[in-house]
Write a structure and sequence with these properties.
Helices cover 63% and strands 10% of the residues. It has 11 helices and 5 strands, in the order H-H-H-H-H-H-H-H-H-E-H-E-E-H-E-E. A hairpin with a 2-residue loop joins strand 4 and strand 5 (370-378). The two termini are 49 Å apart.
């Protein structure tokens, strides 16, 4: 996986805490400028009579050293220092100082603190040597110092500009990642809503389709299929409305725990099970958030029980205290489970996710030949 710079890394670059590389455009610009100067110097040396060849080579080499900064500022600085030392032999210190002043911009643009300080010390030392050196005419080294300061300021400005650009890129990448995660979360939410509602009704339909051949139960099965289909369409419109940015439709189904328990009991009885319901789902101590979660747990537990429960009684127990609300759904295990009914195998995970996300406890498993789902949610006291 490719790594991208963090905001702290970009800030470190702006503070000269680490070196960096030139962009493609900067590389082309530096090569073009250096190449042009080198060509002009070379042509001038060839056309001017009486030019010392060694002095011309040193002058051209000092300019060509700038190109080395594209690959290694450290090596380029060392090479530039060597060429400057040779310039005392050919009396071309002025040309070397001009190149060194221009190189200050590249040092600040590319280098790090220790390299920058070393270069500044070396440049001041070089100008001092030139100032006190033996020359037929005095050299105003102040001009070179000013040129170095201006070049360094330009280099630092470019460094800050690129650092800000990278910061913006990082921020845009982080924002894009947040938006992508938000889209994925919304997709997971829609998938979960469809699983919790539509899958339940389809399970009811699939169960009663198998009972249509029974003349004694076909009428009740047809009515159960009709009701399940109507509820599935209502829930589907509900999910579509929530996923849409438009105005919400009226009459949306809510997390009504009492209605969920009553609906599940009717579906169990129509499937041939006896049902025992204990507890008061309308207890005012149950907060609305807990009621919605428990209603979802009841719906998913009903779906699983309709698919896999064996013959016998299904128990629904709701225990409410001042501290917690607990829902337990217990159904007999079947020796021959309904394998023809498909399953997404995500229901238990989603139930646990809902409960644990509300700081509750959840458990589902086999106990004494029965499948027991229990969820307990805390009740916040005022």
């Amino acid at each position: 996986m490719a790594s991208r710079p963090t905001l702290s890394a970009v800030s470190d670059v702006a503070r000269l805490g680490k070196g960096e590389k030139l962009s493609v455009i900067e590389r082309i610009a530096v090569l073009a400028i250096v190449g042009t100067i080198v060509v002009i110097d070379a042509v001038g040396s060839l056309l001017t009579p009486g030019v010392d060849p060694f002095a011309a080579v040193v002058s051209i080499a000092s300019t060509a050293m700038l190109a080395l900064y594209l690959w290694s500022p450290l090596i380029a600085t060392c090479a530039l220092g060597l060429v400057f030392a040779l310039s005392f032999l050919t009396d071309t210190q002025s040309q070397s100082l001009i190149v060194a002043a221009l190189a200050a911009g590249l040092i600040v643009r590319l280098g790090w603190t220790s390299l920058l300080l070393s270069y500044a010390a070396g440049f001041l030392l070089a100008t001092a040597f030139v100032a006190v050196g033996v020359n037929e005419e005095p050299i105003n080294v102040g001009v070179y110092l000013i040129a170095a300061v201006v070049a360094g300021a330009v280099g630092y400005a470019l460094r800050l500009a690129f650092a800000r650009g990278r910061t913006l890129e990082v921020q845009l990448a982080e924002k894009a990642e947040q938006e992508r995660q938000a889209v994925l979360a919304e997709r997971r939410w829609i998938a979960g809503e469809l699983h919790d509602s539509i899958a339940h009704h389809l399970t009811v339909v699939s169960l009663h389709v198998q009972m249509l051949d029974d003349d004694t139960a076909s009428g009740a099965s047809q009515e159960a299929i009709r009701i399940a289909a109507r509820k599935a369409m209502t829930d589907l419109r509900f999910v579509i409305d929530l996923a849409d940015d438009g105005p919400r439709a009226s009459g949306m189904p809510a997390g009504d725990l009492a209605a969920s328990i009553e609906e599940a009991a009717e579906e169990f009885e129509s499937a041939g099970h006896s049902v025992q319901v204990t507890g008061d789902p309308s207890d005012e101590r149950i907060p609305r958030a807990a009621e919605i979660i428990l209603a979802r747990i009841m719906r998913e537990s009903a779906t699983n029980a309709l698919k896999y429960a064996g013959q016998g009684q299904i128990a629904i127990d709701l225990a409410v205290s001042d501290d917690a609300a607990a829902l337990t759904v217990s159904s007999p295990l079947s020796a021959t489970p309904r394998r023809e009914l498909s399953s997404s195998r995500t229901g238990i995970g989603r139930m646990a996710e809902r409960v644990l996300g509300a700081s509750g406890t959840f458990d589902a498993g086999e106990i004494d030949g029965r499948w027991v789902v229990s969820a307990q949610l805390p009740i916040a006291r005022s």
